[in-house]
Amino acid sequence: MRIEYSPEFDRRLESFYQYIRDELNSPDTAVRNVNRILDQCSLLAIMPKMGIGIYTEEGRDTGMRMLIMANHVAIYRITEEYIDVVTLLDARTKEFGEVMEEIRQKVSRNKM
Predict the structure, then answer these.
(1) Is the pLDDT of residue 58 over 70?
(2) What is the set of domains in the chain, with CATH numbers?
(3) 89 in Cβ contact with 96 (< 8 Å)
């Protein structure tokens, strides 16, 4: 199965890279982190369900999954033709919780 990365995923990956390279002054670490993320995401092509399903508080499947990679989380969905990697988040941030809640709320509103 092929993997498609959204423009948002690409922007966030580039942002993580630039932060580590420029702000932390560690270009080698930046390259290693980006390669690690891409390598782990590439495994979805052969094991699409290796990530964890995201469910609402009521137990409804959101259709979204998350692949946890140390401090980063790739949010994706499985379609019939490809794996759609929607975004990349830093699990240590407030934004991670906000995005997870947004996914859950969207499904809860649409399924009522």
Answers:
(1) yes
(2) 2-110 (3.30.2310.20)
(3) yes
Evaluate whether 26 touches 16 at the Cβ level (below 8 Å).
no
Question: Residue 45 forms beta bridges with which residues?
Answer: none
Which residue, among 65, 59, 75, 70, has the nearest Cα to 111 in the 3D structure?
59
CB neighbours (10 Å) of residue 88? 25
* pTM as predicted: 0.87
**What distance in Å separates the CA atoms of residue 69 and residue 90, rounded to the nearest whole number?**
10
Q: To 5 degrees, how large is the angle CA 64–CA 96–CA 42?
A: 50
Rounded Cα distance between 16 and 90, Å, is 9
The tokens describing 44, both together, are: 């979805």
Alpha carbon distances (Å) from 44 to 30, 38, 67, 94: 22, 10, 9, 26
